[in-house]
């Protein structure tokens, strides 16, 4: 039972999360909790090599092993035309390898057995004869003319996948030619992984008697999964039901369709019983989709007095063996062209080249709206490089170059139309709250004593809430989202949405939206997501899109219900509809405040006392196609102290001032900010998936892929300004990803600010203690 | 994440455990706290045919002082040593080390004997026991013997224990005179194995000069190592800044770190030097005024 929160007008209030009582008591229902009669277990054999030809696979011993019901190889799938499947990026990906493997941990064969232990025992008995091939892990080497071609299946005999650009090359180059100041910096955004607590997994349940295929899958986008399964397997879509139960974190990892899902479905279709496949931690990190891995170069052209004129960006994007980046179809580099950030550049030009290497496929948005994290990190880092070159305070340089509030809606040189913002106000609040001037004073004193403290700033702009449909689609499906609301006769409400939360608190925030619009309490509204047989079609939860799209749909759907309710209220009040007014809690008669009916009264009447000419019932649905994206932003400031002896960085303070427009639930927003900052902190200081020259993954588990604990995590200070989105029905913007998008640059800028007396321009993330130690010792600084 | 099939034995006494070890030989593996062994088995890196679970042997629990030594039972959990108030004054290195081991869950299950017998060079207890000049009490079919800690670690994951011997306790000499210690550890993340760590134990004689010096090095070689040169540089001398600097510079000379994801060998050596100096300065401060002459 949720705690009763009967308050009316819940909008903007810190309502406790309705989902927490079950989740914190261990009563959630995750995919691995699903146990079905006669269920079998699937286990996948993976390649030890990063690049090898498969000469022969002998499955005979595995087939004879105890409990084994089925062994599948790529050849078996090829007979069903399922050895390959489409990716979200228009490429294809092997489900089980046929002639060769292209990354370590690639799926090679699968065993289905009565128990998981039997399946794990049996895959050890599969004999695979590999012929190792030359490995390419460096995307720059992959582009060299003599590099081995990795994708022999493709027509294009090159490891180069695509070239993409945005902005105006000539105009930008012209400004650079004349500019008095040009700075240039290479910046790597390392390969990281969303690494949710719950790894990927599914139960595929084909019932030969009904012909129905139910797939329980830990999914951020159940409808997309249903359509992708239909398109991949040819199974009729109306006979597929995808159920995404409680999801233990997604962060972008649970958007794509993975080979394991296809294999589980094939196994269930062949055997006619449910088949469960649950990844191990290693399988999750080392084979499901990674994020980032961008090798970026940025140049800024500026005047000597600190006016930024133009931005030029060149990027090599390492996509691994298959191009499986999860981006809208027209945007192979996602929304990366938001790289001009919060600054009023005259011109910009951005180009990205996608490259194949012998690494796992991916390019998902890890708590990030399609490559925005890379863009924000790059611009915020390079603005600091320019400040250093100009010997100008990085805060002052930002203030001189912000897009001013009167310029909104602002068209950026790469074509985005920013909806709203007041960057100066938000940044000045942050400077004041952190005590910027005093910190600078303290820093000077510390430097004089040979101590190193740093202040790092990031004033980023996010771009979230895809659609609009004219520009954005996934697999051709337009990126709208949806809500369906049913008001029961007693005035209680069930609402279903096309998105799927994984910790974002939709069961609470969307209940707040609907309760607010209908004059009810949040306890009157239950929000359900994740079952494609009941929820309206939607594109899912990622890229901070739920509130901008489904949240808007929920509000507009509720208003549709209110419009009908007004007609019924007029009937109950025995007046003309034009004489009925809604005050947020009840309908009353204009000029007669004593006479009113509540939504509960109307709901009962909708089923018991409907006037002629009006359909009974009180239900509505709404498919919302946003007119534009929303552009939340923030001003983040980190204060760090450096241990000269070990090079360790201590984050003394971190302040995040966010502006995500109108806030529906400030407690949930703050929780989102805390979580995102913690992930940004991890990326800045801990997380990386390195590969050795043979393509061996060196961080395939939580021993080496580091997820911070509460002990490591700095204390977060938060604040906010409110600049509503002019086009969102509630004036809201997305927020879940802002802290992860905006914070890495603040951390890294703080470390470089601390080291600025040494003239160090840049350190690539993650900033491990040894990197700082090396710089200190190279400059003769020791303890 | 299931291990290979294995046979399970749960002896109720040390004698029975030793008999089972003799019976199964190489195929047998002792299960203590299981915090390293079980993950290795689940990853199928380790696949023992027989697990001999010693968690039911009461005689392996707890500690007592005997004959100028503290005897700590092999199955004493890290968390017990972390929280044992009665050990804090005389044997502070136990709680100072225990609180750095992994995370609370692992400390609740993991044991000091299991950790030493596993012989991971990144084990925090290894360095601490070197600093305290501990001995490991081994019991075999022929009875008991004490193995000095410097002879106990043979190589990574290899000890001087015979196949049929069980580590039943660790013995630590009671410091003579005022003593202090520090455990210094640098991690990439809380609960991670050390980038480098150092255990330092110092006791002063009545003349205020160092009478006992023990410095154990963690995660900087194939086994936990002793900073013998630095120890020698401390013995018989007062803990002045000059002596501290000299001794701490000698610590890296006995380390054998390797380049890896945690940092270069050069880096780890320097961290050991920094840690030694910090630990010795802290210790000097703590012991100031504890003896007549300084």
TrEMBL record, chain A:
Coiled-coil regions listed in the entry: none
Keywords associated with the record: Molybdenum, Oxidoreductase
Domain Aldehyde oxidase/xanthine dehydrogenase a/b hammerhead: 25-134
Pfam families in UniProt: Ald_Xan_dh_C (PF01315), MoCoBD_1 (PF02738), MoCoBD_2 (PF20256)
Required cofactor names: Mo-molybdopterin cytosine dinucleotide
InterPro entries: Ald_Oxase/Xan_DH_a/b, Ald_Oxase/Xan_DH_a/b_sf, Ald_Oxase/xanthine_DH-like, AldOxase/xan_DH_MoCoBD1, AldOxase/xan_DH_MoCoBD2, AldOxase/xan_DH_Mopterin-bd_sf, CO_Mo_DH_lsu
SUPFAM superfamilies: CO dehydrogenase molybdoprotein N-domain-like, Molybdenum cofactor-binding domain
An MF annotation (GO) of this entry: iron ion binding
Domain of life, per lineage: Bacteria
PANTHER family hit by this protein: ALDEHYDE OXIDASE 1-RELATED, XANTHINE DEHYDROGENASE
Record's protein name: Carbon monoxide dehydrogenase
UniProtKB/TrEMBL annotation, chain B:
Record domain FAD-binding PCMH-type: where: 1-177
The enzyme's E.C. designation: 1.2.99.2
GO molecular function terms listed in the Swiss-Prot or TrEMBL record: FAD binding; oxidoreductase activity
SUPFAM superfamilies noted in UniProt: CO dehydrogenase flavoprotein C-terminal domain-like, FAD-binding/transporter-associated domain-like
Xref: SMART domains: CO_deh_flav_C (SM01092)
Origin superkingdom: Bacteria
Alphabetically ordered keywords of this record: FAD, Flavoprotein, Oxidoreductase
EC primary class: oxidoreductase
Pfam family, any one: CO_deh_flav_C
PANTHER family: XANTHINE DEHYDROGENASE SUBUNIT C-RELATED
KW Repeat (keyword) present: no
Gene (UniProt): coxM
Name of the protein this chain belongs to: Carbon monoxide dehydrogenase
């Amino acid at each position: 039972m949720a705690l009763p929160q009967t308050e009316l007008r819940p909008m903007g209030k810190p309502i406790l999360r309705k989902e927490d009582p079950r989740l914190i008591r261990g009563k959630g229902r995750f995919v691995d909790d699903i146990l079905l009669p006669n269920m079998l277990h699937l286990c996948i054999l993976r390649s030890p090599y990063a690049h090898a030809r498969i000469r022969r696979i002998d499955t005979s011993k595995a087939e004879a092993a105890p409990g084994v019901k089925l062994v599948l190889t790529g050849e078996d799938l090829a007979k069903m035309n399922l050895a390959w499947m489409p990716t979200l990026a228009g490429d294809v990906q092997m489900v089980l390898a046929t002639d060769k493997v292209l990354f370590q941990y690639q799926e090679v064969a699968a065993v289905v057995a009565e128990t998981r232990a039997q399946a794990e025992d049996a895959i050890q008995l599969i004999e695979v004869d590999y012929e190792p091939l030359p490995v390419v892990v460096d995307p720059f080497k992959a582009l060299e003319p003599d590099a081995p071609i990795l994708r022999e299946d493709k027509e294009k005999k090159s490891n180069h996948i695509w070239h993409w650009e945005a902005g105006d090359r000539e105009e930008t180059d012209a400004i650079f030619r004349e500019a008095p100041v040009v700075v240039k910096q290479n910046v790597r955004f390392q390969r990281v992984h969303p690494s949710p607590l719950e790894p990927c997994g599914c139960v595929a349940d084909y019932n030969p008697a009904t012909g129905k295929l139910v797939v329980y899958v830990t999914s951020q986008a159940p409808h997309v999964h249903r359509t992708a399964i239909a398109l991949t397997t040819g199974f009729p879509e109306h006979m597929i039901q995808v159920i995404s139960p409680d999801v233990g974190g997604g962060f972008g990892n649970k958007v794509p369709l993975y080979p394991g899902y296809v294999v589980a479905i094939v196994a269930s279709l062949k055997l006619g019983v449910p088949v469960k496949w649950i990844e191990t931690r290693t399988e999750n990190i080392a084979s499901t989709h990674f994020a980032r891995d961008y090798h970026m170069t940025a140049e800024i052209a500026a005047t000597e007095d600190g006016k930024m004129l133009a931005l030029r960006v060149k990027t090599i994007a390492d996509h691994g063996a298959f191009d499986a980046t999860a981006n809208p179809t027209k945007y192979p580099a996602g929304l990366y062209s938001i790289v001009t950030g919060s600054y009023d550049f005259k011109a910009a030009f951005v180009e990205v080249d996608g490259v194949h290497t012998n690494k796992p496929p991916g390019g998902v948005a890890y708590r990030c709206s399609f490559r925005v994290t890379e863009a924000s990190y790059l611009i915020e880092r390079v603005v600091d490089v320019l400040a250093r070159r100009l010997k100008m305070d990085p805060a002052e340089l930002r203030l001189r170059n912000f897009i001013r509030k009167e310029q909104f809606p602002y068209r950026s040189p790469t074509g985005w139309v920013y909806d709203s913002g007041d960057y100066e106000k938000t940044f000045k609040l942050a400077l004041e709250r952190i005590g910027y001037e005093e910190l600078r004073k303290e820093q000077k004193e510390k430097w004089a004593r040979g101590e190193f403290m740093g202040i790092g700033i990031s004033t980023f702009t996010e771009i979230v809430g895809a659609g609009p449909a004219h520009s954005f689609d996934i697999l051709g499906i337009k990126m709208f989202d949806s809500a369906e609301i049913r008001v029961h006769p007693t005035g209680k409400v069930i609402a279903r949405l096309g998105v799927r939360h994984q910790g974002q608190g939709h069961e609470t925030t969307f209940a707040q939206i609907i309760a607010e619009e209908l004059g009810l309490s949040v306890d009157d509204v239950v929000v359900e997501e994740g079952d494609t047989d009941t929820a309206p079609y939607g594109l899912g939860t990622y890229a901070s899109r739920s509130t901008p799209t489904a949240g808007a749909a929920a509000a507009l759907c509720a208003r549709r219900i209110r419009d009908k309710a007004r007609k019924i209220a007029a009937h109950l009040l025995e007046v003309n509809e034009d004489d009925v007014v809604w005050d947020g809690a009840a309908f009353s008669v204009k000029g007669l405040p004593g006479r009113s009916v509540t939504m509960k009264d109307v709901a009962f009447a909708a089923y018991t006392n409907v006037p002629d000419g009006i359909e009974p019932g009180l239900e509505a649905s709404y498919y919302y196609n946003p007119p534009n994206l929303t552009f939340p932003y923030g001003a983040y400031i980190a204060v760090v102290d450096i241990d000269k002896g070990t090079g360790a960085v201590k984050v003394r303070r971190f302040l995040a001032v966010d502006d995500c427009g109108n806030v529906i639930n400030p407690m949930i927003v703050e929780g989102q900010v805390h979580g995102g900052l913690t992930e940004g902190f991890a990326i800045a200081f801990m997380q990386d998936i390195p590969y050795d020259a043979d393509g061996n993954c060196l961080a395939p588990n939580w021993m080496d892929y580091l997820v911070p604990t509460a002990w490591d995590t700095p204390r977060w200070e938060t604040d906010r300004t409110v600049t509503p989105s002019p086009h969102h029905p509630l004036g809201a913007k997305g927020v879940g990803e802002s802290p992860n998008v905006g914070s890495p640059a603040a951390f890294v800028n703080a470390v470089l600010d601390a080291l600025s007396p040494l003239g160090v321009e840049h350190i690539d993330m993650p900033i491990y203690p040894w990197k700082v130690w090396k710089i200190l010792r190279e400059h003769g600084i020791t303890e | 994440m299931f291990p290979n099939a294995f046979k399970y034995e749960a002896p109720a006494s040390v004698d029975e455990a030793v008999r089972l070890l003799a019976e199964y030989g190489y195929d047998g593996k002792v299960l203590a706290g299981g915090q390293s062994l079980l993950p290795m088995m689940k990853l199928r890196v380790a696949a023992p045919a027989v697990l001999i679970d010693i968690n039911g042997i009461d005689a392996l629990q707890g500690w007592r002082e005997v004959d100028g030594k503290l005897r700590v039972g092999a199955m004493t959990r890290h968390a017990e040593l972390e929280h044992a108030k009665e050990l804090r004054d005389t044997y502070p290195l136990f709680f100072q080390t225990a609180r750095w081991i992994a995370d609370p869950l692992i400390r609740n299950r993991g044991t000091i004997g299991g950790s030493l017998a596993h012989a991971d060079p990144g084990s925090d207890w290894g360095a601490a026991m070197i600093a305290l000049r501990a001995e490991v009490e081994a019991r075999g079919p022929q009875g008991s013997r004490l193995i000095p800690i410097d002879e106990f670690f043979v190589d990574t994951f290899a000890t001087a224990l015979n196949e049929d011997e069980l580590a039943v306790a660790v013995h630590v000499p009671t410091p003579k005179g005022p003593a202090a210690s520090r455990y210094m550890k640098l991690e990439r993340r809380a609960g991670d194995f050390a980038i480098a760590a150092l255990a330092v134990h110092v006791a002063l004689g009545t003349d205020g000069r160092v009478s006992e010096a023990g410095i154990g090095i963690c995660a900087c070689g194939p086994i936990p190592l002793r900073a013998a040169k630095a120890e020698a540089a401390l013995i018989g001398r007062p803990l002045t800044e000059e002596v501290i600097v000299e001794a701490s510079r000698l610590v890296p000379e006995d380390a054998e770190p390797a380049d890896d994801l945690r940092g270069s060998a050069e880096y780890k050596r320097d961290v050991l030097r920094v840690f030694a100096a910090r630990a010795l300065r802290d210790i000097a401060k703590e012991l100031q005024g504890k003896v007549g002459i300084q």
